[in-house]
């Protein structure tokens, strides 16, 4: 098996692990920022909840329905942004968008970890919206939070 095929297999396994065993699935207790988004082309829908205090995402959870790509991406995203300053979470989202568009990106000081398993989605333009749904929900929620302050 070539290295490329080995990586594809590993990436599929990582995506399926997040799909079957999603991290941060559920609802937050108490006051939280809620964002509902859906992808009308395939029926994916997500409600992202975040607790943001003093410019930091203290917690993030999601509920929703969708394909393995959208739900595993939501799992990975919530894991990646929890405990991070809002500014860093938005930078990660920008890096992820570039990855999805097949553009050059610099991870900078971020370790994308499992998120890199989604880079193959860039080869399937119809699936990019699935992968970016949770990230777009985070951006929208943080923008609305910023405007409300």
TrEMBL record:
GO terms for molecular function: iron ion binding; iron-sulfur cluster binding. Gene3D superfamilies: 3.90.1010.10. Residues 11-130 form the NIF system FeS cluster assembly NifU N-terminal domain. CDD domains: IscU_like. InterPro entries: NIF_FeS_clus_asmbl_NifU_N. One of its GO terms (biological process) is iron-sulfur cluster assembly. Pfam families: NifU_N. Belongs to the NifU family. NCBIfam families: SUF_scaf_2. This is SUF system NifU family Fe-S cluster assembly protein.
